[in-house]
Amino acid sequence: MERSASSEHTLRLASLDDDLRRRLDGLRSNRGPVIASRRLVEASLEDGEAHYGINTGFGALKHQMVEPGDVEQLQLNLIRSHAVGVGQSVPKAISRRMLQLKIHALGLGYSGVSEEVFERLLLMEELDLIPVIPTRGSLGASGDLAPLAHMALPLIGEGQIWTDDGPAPASSALGRQNLKPATLHAKDGLALINGTQFMAAYACEIILKAQNLAKTADIVAAMSLDACRGSILPFDARVQAIRPHPGHGVVAENIRNLLEGSEILPSHEDCGKVQDPYSLRCAPQVHGASRDAIGHAALVVETEINSVTDNPLVFEDADGKPDLISAGNFHGQPLALVLDYAAIALAEWASISERRTYLLIDGYDDLPPFLVAESGLQSGFMIPQYTAAALVSENKTLAHPASVDTIPSSRGQEDHVSMGAWGALKGLQVVENAEQVLAIELLCTAQALDHRRPFKSGPGVEAAHAAVRARVPFREADTSFTADITACTELVRSGGLIAAVEMEIGVLR
């Protein structure tokens, strides 16, 4: 029975929300693979043999057989006993994506989940009955057990659901929809809580944000290069051609395009300056390496969200009989490694950005100290750089890899774990910090470009500058910069900065 993901079932990060919507709509009308795998599970119960998690205990209790009359209670107990999460709640949008990814994985037809439970998951997603899920508790090994158990609790009328007023008891939310708790049948609980959907949902969020930051970092670097009256020569295509890392060449090309037509560049051709600091001159090498790392991480994440990651897996042998295999597809190592890799790449974007911010406020190439006319009386942009430095320092700690750690659990049965769940949580913090660090550079470099007037930069940079000035004025005197930083951060996060530039000069790579 061949049920591998066909092209119409494949989820792509570039169009993830649309792909998930299309996939779930398809599963509402065609549940053939789910029905087929369920029949195999039911057939396995009739052979009298032990099948892990279906008629046996879990983890270190794998040898304990369960009486046929207790199979449903076993699944119910599994959900309740594993719902041990603590800490703040997963953001609702990420919880929704967890639910959607779980439905997609079950729909591939290798999990043996019952139709009743599968239909209830689809209905919960359709009615926006999104579970409240604590962030802490997963080791990222036997699946994201604790987070997924909390995701499953509302199926049985327990746990919490997000409402407009915040978290509310699932029992009341289901009652308003005239829904009774679903009955968990053999294998249902295990299919629900084994899987990497917590890590994967966070990984999608991180990579999508990182892909937005890739172009943003190039735009802001181009602005700072011109504001610092840096040289365009290190961005020559011939330089990139003899060290042909893909991201390296893309960054140099983007910056050349952004600065094409600049009046500032020719204004200092004969200044006698030999070299710029690395934070300007080495942007292609540093930004490019981060781009390549994020590109690799994106491929791994895309593979993961199109995979079956629970246990045991339900196959059919050559004679049409059930062939259940207890394996390790739930182990989070593939995601754990690239989540750490992505965090390091993101931290580097922020690190080099903060160094450019320091150049801007340090009076580089005759810029006024702290970017104001009366420094001394005015502190100017001195302290936004402090905030950037604090965030960069925080990222250095958060970028320590989670995946090098492991703590055995379940009496040694689960003796190597990925810690990918922590990698996911801290990875999101790293990317959000990086967005703010780049927003601070954006704020400062817009101010610096104003000090280079009447000379203008290239149309791409000028479009970015105008996008900032539409939200934040030129500052002649001290002010509380929190509102300015917030406005620039929103411009970065929303993709508005990229949109403004690409409307002017075409799509960046």
Relevant terms:
two-stranded antiparallel ribbon, mainly alpha, 509 residues, 5% strand, Fumarase C, Chain B, domain 1, 20 helices, Fumarase C, Chain A, domain 2, two-stranded antiparallel sheet, 55% helix, 2 domains
In CATH, the architecture of the largest domain is Up-down Bundle
Shape: elongated
CATH superfamily of the largest domain: Fumarase/aspartase (Central domain)
The total of beta strands comes to 6
Low-confidence stretches: none
Helix content: 40-55%
- Can you write the helix and strand succession as a string? HHHEHHEHEEHHHHHHHHEEHHHHHH
CATH class (first level) name of the largest domain: Mainly Alpha
CATH domain topology of the largest domain:
Fumarase C, Chain A, domain 2
Widest sheet: strand order? Answer: 1-2
State the secondary-structure class: mainly alpha
Describe the structure.
The protein has 509 residues and is mainly alpha-helical. The protein has two domains: 7-195, Fumarase/aspartase (N-terminal domain) (Fumarase C, Chain B, domain 1, Orthogonal Bundle), CATH 1.10.275; 202-312 and 329-505, Fumarase C, Chain A, domain 2, CATH 1.20.200.10. The protein has 20 helices and six strands. The protein has a two-stranded antiparallel ribbon with strand order 1-2. Strands 3-4 form a two-stranded antiparallel ribbon. The model has no long low-confidence stretch (mean pLDDT 93).
